[in-house]
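Recall the central idea of this unit: under ordinary conditions, the amino acid sequence of a chain determines the structure it adopts. In this exercise we apply that idea directly, starting from the sequence alone.
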Amino acid sequence: MSLMFFADEAEVPLPPREVRIIEVAARPSHDGYRVALSLTLTPFLEYPNLEVVLYRPDGEEERSLSIVGTMERNLLITLHVKQPVPGGAYRVQIELVYEGEVLQTQEVHFLMPEAMG
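Accordingly, the structure predicted from this sequence is:
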């Protein structure tokens, strides 16, 4: 028998295939060398996996990371940018993955600041 405690009893943890990304936001820093990515997931029974990719304005991959078995529903991730393009249109793609299957894909678009520094 396992005991599970929840901060909000109205939020019922979901089985892996029903977990979803419910909110995504990307905020570039003023200097353009960092992007703060915030994610919110539905409550979960098993720790979900995420794949995150940051794409440059030319469509090339700038940065990627895998999050294996996150224990948090609300994540704040900092992505680093080698050579930011001022005013460039960037895109972040997030995939929610379970047993090798992509369950959901979310994208967020943002512009790098024009005047960086």
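The two ends are 55 Å apart (CA to CA).
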